[in-house]
Structure formats: structure tokens, C-alpha cells
TrEMBL record:
Species assigned in the record: Thermosipho ferrireducens
Adenylosuccinate lyase C-terminal domain boundaries: 349-427
Enzyme class name: lyase
Pathway stated in the Swiss-Prot or TrEMBL entry: Purine metabolism; AMP biosynthesis via de novo pathway; AMP from IMP: step 2/2; Purine metabolism; IMP biosynthesis via de novo pathway; 5-amino-1-(5-phospho-D-ribosyl)imidazole-4-carboxamide from 5-amino-1-(5-phospho-D-ribosyl)imidazole-4-carboxylate: step 2/2
Family the UniProt entry places it in: Belongs to the lyase 1 family. Adenylosuccinate lyase subfamily.
Coiled coil regions, renumbered to chain: none
Signal peptide residues on this chain, from the entry's feature table: none
EC number: 4.3.2.2
Xref: Pfam families: ADSL_C, Lyase_1
Presence of keyword Lyase: yes
Keywords: Lyase, Purine biosynthesis
Protein name: Adenylosuccinate lyase
Length: 429
């Protein structure tokens, strides 16, 4: 976890103290279940709560001796307990505690991310509505194609992230499981009923079939969805980076009065936030592959996944949370130069209306092949000479097209005629 890209409240979620508190929560839930079932004497749970002790430095010191973090934790957590210590970690293995606690952490982190995603979606939809009727040039392959609605950019991002939110909510349900079934997951030393009771106290469900660990495909699915969200944010960032190019300059990311864009060139306003989001997206996606690598483990379990997850879970959640919060700032404060958006439609001097001209000529009786060849010939001429496409059409087809018809053919408003139909798909948002 890089401090620079770690924001609260997720940052504190992955501290060692928070981790040990989650471990303790799992252990105490099991003690509670033992008492509920009459296995532990009445009052055991309350005594365990009262006397449980966590000291991060002491745990770390003992870990240096025993070279096992869970054993070190148990020794410190029970160091002030009496008889109740007999039921602490009784019938459990380390992965029971660690995996179940990780589920709690991932659920909490996912809840925070879901909340911030909803805030981002709200901002995107507001911008989509604001720029719904603003004509802009659509680009394919980086080349001017045809006019479209500037608002559709935001609506497209909104729609994608809405799908990702749905996926994330489903994944949260999938990872809301724990595992308290012992060394190889067969309940030899702990009853399934103990697991069921303890996990219910933690608002979790039992993993249907576990080995010594919770199957890692559940985590992999979650991380994969995190990668989709990061990629959606990067798609936004890349579009804004292009639109902020000097020769395009349709938008500009937020730039503070005291901000400086370059140590050498005082005039610079660089899209540093968008570039940062692009880079962080690569980090998130790199963990998608890593999460898949964690699925195949030896037999009932090895620990090849363990070191990976100590990096992956904190990094992927804090980084994605940071990206979503910064994306909110980006979208909320994005500067849109509407005059430049409109003016850029005419950069090619009318060539972007070539399809509409072709279709009109077909309506007038030309075959598609004839219309395409004639329009392309004039378009290529205009590319080379930088002349007005509308003037060339007027000269070549005045016998088929009236002045009014030609003016209508070169109107960007035509391309917005069905935009309302797209927006109606989101009218209940």
C-alpha cells in the first residue's frame, strides 16, 4: 500500500491493529457459539471479551520467536485470560481465522467502494444531462467521423460503471462467506453447527466446500471486477487526455490557482490526474492476473497465496478507492469549452457530413456505388486541397440538390435527432 494513493477510511482498514481486531472478532464469535451450544460454560464469552488483549508490538516481538503470526496473536490475545482461554482457537486452524477475517475486511472495503461508485455515477449522469444537446465531433481511430452528442460520452461511462456496480454487488454477496471447519475443512474437531452460529454472528455464510482455505476463485472474481472498474475509469481518463490536447482543447481537467504544471515551462497545464488514473489502472489490472494465479493450490492448501494477498488485498482496495474518489473530483470540476467543442466539428471543412450526402444522393436515384465513388472523389480532393466540402458538393450536385437541401445536409443538429431515445433508457435513474 503506497501512502500517496491511500485514503481513509480504507487506509486504516489494513493496519496491523485492524487486522488483529478482526482476528479477535472471529475467535470470539467461535467462543460465543461454543457457549450457545453448551460446550463452553456460561459466561465464557463475556470473560473472553473482558480479558482479550491486543498489543501490536508484543505480537510482532513474539512472531520473531515463533515465526508464525497467528500463534503470536493467540499468545498475546489470551495472555490475560483465565479458563476461558481453553475455548479460544479451540478446534480451529490458522486459515479459519485469517480467511474469515479477510472476508470481513474485503466486505467492508467493498462497501466503501460501492458507496463512492454511487457518488461517481451521480456526477456522470448529471454531466450527461448537462451536455445532452451539445453537438460534438465523434472520432473513430482518432480521426473525425460524424457529429454526435457530447453528453453521450458521459452517458457511456455512466452505463459501463453501472454494470460494474451491479457486478460488484453480486461479488460482495459471493465473498460474504467464512470458513471455520478445521485443518483440512472436514469438521473433524469442530461442529458445522459451531461454524454456522459463529458465522451468523459475523453476518457471513459458511463456504459450501472448503479445504483448509476458502476457495480463491471467490477472491479472483472480486479482483477481476475491480479491474473492470479501473479500466472504466481509465477509459474516461484517456478520452479526457485526448480532448485536452492543445490542438483539440475541448476540455481541461481541474487546475488549482496555486498549481504548477511544469518545473521548466510556466505555461503548462498538463492532464496529470488523468495520467495518474491511467497508471493506477495498470496496477489494478496486474493484480487480476495475480488473483487468478492464487486459485490453484497444492492439495488441501499451501501458502503460496498468503504472501501475495498481504500485498494484493490492501493495494487493490486502497488504490481503486483512491481512483474512484479522484475520478469524482475530475468529473465534477471538469472544464468543458463548449465553443471549441462546436468549432472542432468544422475542422475538416465539412468532410464529416460525407455519409449523409451519400445517402441523400442515393435517395435522389444514384446507386450506392455511384454515390460512394462520387462523394469519396470530392472528399479526397478536399483532404488534399483543404477546400470546403460543402462548396464542392454544391458545384457538383446542384442539378440534384437545392441550396436548402445542401444546408440541411451540413447541419450537426441532424445527428442529435435520436439522442432522446438513448437517454430514455435511463429515464428512471
Amino acid at each position: 500500500m503506497v501512502e500517496r494513493y491511500a485514503l481513509e477510511p480504507i487506509k486504516s482498514l489494513w493496519s496491523l491493529e485492524a487486522q488483529y481486531k478482526r482476528w479477535l472478532k472471529v475467535e470470539l464469535a467461535v467462543v460465543w457459539a461454543y457457549e450457545r451450544l453448551g460446550i463452553a460454560p456460561k459466561g465464557t464469552y463475556q470473560q473472553a471479551i473482558k480479558n482479550a488483549y491486543i498489543d501490536v508490538e508484543k505480537i510482532l516481538d513474539i512472531e520473531k520467536e515463533v515465526d508464525h503470526d497467528v500463534i503470536a496473536f493467540i499468545k498475546v490475545a489470551t495472555s490475560k485470560m483465565g479458563k476461558e482461554a481453553s475455548f479460544f482457537h479451540y478446534g480451529l486452524t490458522s486459515s479459519d481465522v485469517v480467511d474469515t477475517a479477510n472476508s470481513l475486511a474485503l466486505i467492508e472495503a467493498t462497501n466503501i467502494i460501492i458507496s463512492e461508485m454511487k457518488n461517481l455515477l451521480k456526477l456522470l449522469f448529471e454531466k450527461a444531462l448537462q451536455y445532452k444537446k451539445l453537438p460534438s465531433i465523434g472520432r473513430t481511430h482518432g480521426v473525425h467521423a460524424e457529429p454526435t452528442s457530447f453528453g453521450l460520452k458521459f452517458l457511456s461511462w455512466y452505463s459501463e460503471l453501472k454494470r460494474d456496480l451491479k457486478r460488484l454487488i453480486n461479488a460482495r454477496e459471493e465473498i460474504s462467506v467464512g470458513k471455520l471447519s478445521g485443518a483440512v475443512g472436514n469438521y473433524a474437531h469442530i461442529s458445522p453447527l459451531v461454524e454456522e452460529l459463529a458465522l451468523s454472528k459475523l453476518s457471513l455464510k459458511p463456504t459450501p466446500v472448503a479445504t483448509q482455505v476458502i476457495p480463491r476463485d471467490l477472491h479472483s472474481n472480486l479482483i477481476n471486477i475491480f479491474g473492470l472498474i479501473a479500466s472504466a475509469i481509465e477509459r474516461m481518463a484517456i478520452e479526457i487526455r485526448h480532448l485536452q490536447k492543445t490542438e483539440v482543447l475541448e476540455v481541461q481537467e481541474p487546475f488549482k490557482k496555486t498549481q504548477r504544471g511544469s518545473s521548466a515551462m510556466p505555461h503548462k497545464k498538463n492532464p496529470i490526474l488523468c495520467e495518474r488514473l491511467t497508471g493506477l489502472s495498470r496496477i489494478i489490472r496486474s493484480y487480476v492476473h495475480t488473483a487468478f494465479e492464487n486459485i490453484p493450490l497444492w492439495h488441501e492448501r499451501d501458502i503460496s497465496h498468503s504472501s501475495v494477498e498481504r500485498f494484493m488485498f490492501p493495494d487493490v482496495t486502497t488504490t481503486l478507492h483512491y481512483m474512484i474518489v479522484k475520478a469524482q473530483h475530475l468529473i465534477k470540476n471538469l472544464v468543458v469549452f463548449e465553443d471549441r467543442v462546436k468549432r472542432n466539428i468544422d475542422t475538416t471543412k465539412g468532410l464529416v457530413y460525407s455519409q449523409r450526402v451519400m445517402l441523400k444522393l442515393i435517395e435522389k436515384g444514384l446507386t450506392r456505388e455511384e454515390a460512394y465513388k462520387n462523394v469519396q472523389k470530392l472528399a479526397l480532393k478536399c483532404w488534399e486541397t483543404h477546400s470546403s466540402f460543402k462548396n464542392e458538393i454544391a458545384k457538383s450536385f446542384s442539378h440534384l440538390l437545392s441550396k436548402n437541401e445542401i444546408e440541411e445536409l451540413f447541419s450537426p443538429d441532424y445527428y442529435l435527432k435520436n439522442i432522446d431515445a438513448i437517454y430514455k433508457r435511463f429515464e428512471d435513474e
